[in-house]
Design goal:
two-stranded antiparallel ribbon, 207 residues, mainly alpha, globular, 2 strands, 2 domains
Length: 207
């Protein structure tokens, strides 16, 4: 479909059809200020807002829905959105510079489902994982039980696994080093907090 046909289709579709469209179509980027997106937000249909939160390719839209929704399901959908190449909530500059105040506020108020959506997002990459494991700011004053909960959430994050070997190396050494450090440090820290756990830490687990 042409862009014009796509807009016409979405304007005349049911919420289920709109949800399925955004779930399957990855090439369309409707910006937050697009009249169609503004119409969807104004109408407030939950299924359509869920689709935008979870599948939108526009990070401004995802962030807006997270920050302006009182619905936990929509916030969880926003936190789990991995359609962006670098962007992840509460980080700037290609997903590696933390917005410390926002992260601390999130950690203080988040539900378990929000923690899982956020820390299992594949765009929560090696550098922030290392910050968390080393308890650097903004993760320096998390209560122990929540710290352990987040460790369990990270069991499903692919960036805490070793990705590279001699026949499969990244183009730059920094990428390799970050992944090596994240994967080795995760095993060390996880075993410290869960010495009797029987998880195979070379694999992903949904806990």
């Amino acid at each position: 479909m042409s862009p014009e046909e796509t807009i016409l289709f979405l304007e005349n579709s049911s919420p289920n059809e709109i949800y399925n469209f955004f779930e399957k179509e990855k090439k369309y980027v409707f910006k937050l200020n697009h009249p169609l997106i503004q119409k969807f937000i104004k109408n407030g249909n939950k299924l359509i807002l869920m689709a935008l939160a979870k599948f939108s390719n526009d990070f401004d839209t995802v962030k807006y829905l997270y920050e302006n929704s009182n619905d936990v399901a929509i916030r969880v959908a926003s936190l789990s959105n991995d359609r962006q190449f670098f962007d992840v909530m509460f980080y700037t500059f290609m997903g590696i510079t933390p917005e410390i105040k926002q992260i601390k506020n999130f950690l203080d108020k988040s539900t378990l489902s929000e923690l899982k959506a956020y820390f299992q997002n594949k765009n929560f990459r090696e550098d922030p994982i290392i910050e968390f494991l080393e308890k650097r700011s903004p993760y320096d004053d998390i209560e122990e039980e929540k710290y352990k909960t987040i460790l369990l959430c990270l069991l499903k994050n692919p960036n805490r696994l070793s990705k590279y070997d001699i026949g499969n190396m990244p183009e730059d050494g920094l990428t390799w080093h970050a992944n090596y450090k994240a994967s080795s440090l995760f095993e060390e820290v996880f075993k410290k907090y869960f010495p009797k756990a029987e998880y195979d830490l070379k694999k992903l687990h949904d806990v």
